[in-house]
Design a protein that fits this description.
eight-stranded antiparallel β-barrel; single chain; Porin; alpha+beta; 2 domains
């Protein structure tokens, strides 16, 4: 039989034990409920900082930034109108040929002929270019001058190396008008030819009976028309051109042994530029 004192002590022990178990159970429940939540938020934060922004966010923003930059720099659809954009090259080339017409006081000493022109240079912009040009002109001599020089046929060869600026008045248009001109070195030789017999096969041979030449400065100025070709993707840089120039060469006067007076010609040339 238990005494009241011992029963009171046992009750106290049972009560304290029950309280301790309750506290431990509550703490375990709180820990288990908070741990997944904390891990979930931590995982979500890590995923948000790596997947969406690295794969979609930053890549998409970078692509959008590049597209806007391309439009701003002229690399998009309107790049042809920008000097640093697609379809624009700093290097310039030309090649063409045509005919020459005499003009001025030298018509008794030179007549019609043909020419070849080639050049290379730099496009400083779509509007302005500078070319170094080589031109070869071959003109016939009038019959009276040929006879006076003791020949049967005659010609005048003119070789020039000049600097020629080109100013495009409508650089954004497929069809444009341009101004050109320049000056430099001119070499002119006048030749009187006769035929002698014969070559190995028995045909007459043309030889030069008399000739004189001179070196001098000269200049030219002209007007031209150009048409830009479209190219495969509409970004073509090649142009067809046709131009006429006035050429003035300060050749020696007729009173000197190597001259027939100043030379004036109008060469008309058709060719390509790019």
């Amino acid at each position: 039989m238990s005494t009241p004192c011992s029963m009171s002590l046992m009750r106290r022990v049972c009560f304290l034990s029950s309280a301790a178990l309750c506290v431990a159970s509550f703490a375990g429940a709180q820990s288990s409920s908070l741990s997944p939540s904390t891990q979930y938020f931590a995982g979500e934060s890590s995923s948000a900082s790596s997947q969406p922004f690295s794969d979609d966010g930053l890549t998409g923003a970078g692509a959008l930034h590049d597209a806007v930059a391309a439009l701003g720099s002229g690399r998009g659809g309107g790049g042809q109108d920008n000097d640093s954009g697609h379809g624009f090259s700093k290097l310039a080339f030309e090649a063409g040929g045509g005919f020459n017409a005499p003009i001025g006081n030298d018509t008794p000493y030179i007549t019609w002929g043909g020419n070849f022109t080639g050049g290379a240079g730099i496009h400083f912009s779509r509007r302005f270019s500078l070319l170094g040009e080589f031109q070869y002109m071959d003109n016939k001599l009038p019959g009276a001058l040929v006879a006076a020089g003791g020949g049967q046929t005659g010609n005048a060869h003119i070789i020039s190396i000049t600097a020629a600026p080109v100013i495009d008045l409508f650089p954004k248009s497929a069809n444009s008008i341009y101004l050109t001109g320049g000056g430099g070195y001119y070499y002119k030789s006048t030749n009187f030819n006769i035929q002698e017999c014969c070559d190995f096969y028995g045909y007459p041979v043309t030889v030069t009976a008399n000739s004189f030449s001179s070196n001098q400065l000269g200049g030219n100025i002209g007007l031209g028309y150009s048409h830009r070709l479209g190219g495969v993707y509409g970004d073509g840089t090649m142009k067809l051109y046709a131009e006429a120039r006035y050429v003035y060469i300060k050749t020696p006067p007729i009173t000197e042994t190597d001259g027939l007076g100043t030379t004036e010609l109008i060469p008309v040339t058709i060719g390509v530029r790019w």
